[in-house]
Design a protein that fits this description.
Layout lengths: L12 H7 L5 E7 L5 E7 H9 L3 E4 L27 E14 L5 E9 L11 H14 L2 E14 L3 H6 L24 H13 L4 E6 L5 E10 H21 L3 E3 L15 E7 L30 H13 L4 H4 L23 E3 L6 E4 L10 E4 L8 H18 L13 H6 L9 H9 L13 H20 L3 H7 L4
Parallel strand pairs: 1-5, 11-12
Antiparallel strand pairs: 1-2, 3-4, 4-5, 6-8, 6-9, 6-10, 7-8, 10-13, 12-13
């Protein structure tokens, strides 16, 4: 059962004051392009003043530096040296109100960022981007609905021990490959249950929580809700897991591929559209359920509505052009190895209930019609959920509006030979090639109804910075391979 985004939200300034009457401080945060929470504590009076004044100043450098606070290699659109890293306008979203149970129930709110002169959303603000996509969907009479699943390795390490070990020879939380194990959860039992219980209190409800295959790996499925709320919950689940982990001397890692010889960590996204009346847009009518939809492109899509098939086609057509939005890191592409061993697809593929495909169709007869949806299996756990969901929904809606046809048959009708001969379109195999493809002049990502030029240029510039740092790095692998014998 999803939690309403307005369940505990104040509806007026007076209600807000009443909710905070016993508090002296409030925690606020925004999200940068890498999906990192950037925030601070504010005195309650300062916070209330910002709410009544429609915002407060927040240093724009959070869009001008990378995940480790290193200033980007070149000037970008939002924050740069020429404007002195001036303040953006941070607007508090009252609908995100919740309390942090492991921090003495301190009140917490998310913000989105506006240009201080025009009061328009800035192009690179992840919450603002997804909010705009959701509003475009609403203008067509649809609500964007999403769910998110995370796989993540965990280590018996602290921030101090990670630094001391230089992130090498880390101790996993448990040993061995134990997917869906009821036995392994008896180890670290307090931590395992606290993740479920504390996130519920934090209004980040979970649907499933279990061990996944790999040493110290958990998988957690977040309860579906509206897309913006889902992205908020996905970011805040990471925050909760890392915070609760620190209490137990545990470091959860959402890195996509921390071990070269083991499966990586996925960040699968489930998407659907509903009408304003609550009808599942991808579902068939009751009269079609017995035999499936007449005119479906393939048997795999016969229990998907025509709108659902168009949406699927839109995502498939644009998937190669928006890859940095789904896989934003150097490491993430090492997870996408294809094949059934790791279930990490690396091609433009889809199929009914297929975990080997990039997009898995989930529909009757395996689920009730109202649960019909698509699972996008390309993203890793290191994705920024706002950008990933924005790109997916924007492409899908574009597919409906343009009534696009599926670009290829389902994966069940493809062979390894099809991949080798080019019949199956492969996805970019590195962040460098993915960024080049996204930024090319005719990229679908540049369509104003998808991401638009400004976001492509700014985010693409941040990825070029990441690539530059990687190309300049000297790794342990290189030293071990070449130092003595070269």
């Amino acid at each position: 059962m999803s939690v309403s985004p307005t369940q505990a939200a104040p509806q007026s300034l007076e209600q807000l004051k009443d909710l905070l009457k016993y508090d002296i401080k409030v925690k606020v945060a925004g999200i940068d392009v890498d999906g990192v929470l950037r925030g601070k504590f504010m005195a309650k009076d300062k916070f209330l003043s910002a709410v009544s004044g429609n915002g407060f100043g927040f240093c724009s450098v959070i869009f001008g530096w990378d995940i480790h606070d290193q200033v980007y290699s070149r000037e970008l659109l939002i924050s740069n040296k020429t404007n002195g890293y001036r303040d953006l306008l941070a607007v508090i979203d009252l609908f995100t109100f919740r309390r942090i149970p492991w921090e003495n129930n301190v009140p917490f709110f998310l913000v989105h960022f506006l240009d201080p002169d025009t009061k328009e959303p800035i192009c690179a603000d992840p919450r603002g981007v997804l909010k705009a996509v959701a509003e475009r969907a609403q203008s067509n009479g649809w609500n964007c609905i999403a769910g998110c699943e995370y796989e993540y390795f965990q280590f018996k390490e602290t921030p101090e021990s990670l630094a001391e070990k230089k992130f090498m020879s880390l101790q996993p939380l448990t040993s061995g490959m134990h997917g869906y194990s009821l036995l392994r959860t008896q180890l670290n039992n307090d931590y395992f249950h606290e993740l479920f219980d504390e996130t519920y209190k934090f209004e980040v409800p979970l649907e499933g929580h279990h061990t996944e295959t790999g040493p110290g790996v958990y998988e957690t499925a977040l309860a579906y809700t509206t897309a913006l709320r889902m992205a908020d919950n996905a970011i805040l689940f990471k925050y909760a897991a890392k915070s609760i982990g620190m209490k137990h001397g545990i470091t959860p890692s959402f890195m996509a591929k921390p071990w070269g010889n083991l499966p990586g960590c996925s960040g699968h996204i489930h998407v659907s559209l509903r009408t304003k009346e609550g009808k599942a847009l991808f579902a068939l009518s009751s009269s079609e359920l017995d035999s499936g939809r007449v005119g479906a492109a393939y048997p795999d899509t016969k229990y998907l509505s025509q709108e659902g098939e168009w949406f699927l086609a839109g995502v498939l057509h644009g998937l190669p052009d928006i890859m940095p939005m789904l896989v934003p890191t150097i490491n993430g592409y090492k997870r996408l190895v294809g094949g059934e061993a790791f279930w990490a697809p690396n091609a433009v593929t889809y199929g009914y209930d297929s975990r080997a495909a990039s997009i898995r169709i989930i529909s009757p007869p395996s689920v009730p019609p109202e649960a019909t949806r698509l699972e996008v299996r390309v993203p890793g756990a290191d994705m920024n959920p706002y950008f990933a969901m924005s790109a997916i929904f924007a492409l899908g809606i574009r597919g409906i509006k343009q009534k696009l046809s599926l670009p290829c048959p389902p994966i069940s009708q493809m062979t390894q030979e099809d991949k080798e001969t080019g019949k199956v379109q492969m996805l970019p195999a590195s962040l460098e090639t993915a960024t080049e493809r996204m930024m090319r002049p005719d990229s679908i990502a540049r369509d104003p109804e998808v991401l638009g030029d400004e976001l492509v240029e700014h985010f693409g510039g941040t990825r070029q910075h990441e690539i530059k740092l990687w190309n300049e790095a000297v790794t342990n692998w290189e030293v071990e391979r070449y130092l003595e014998l070269a």
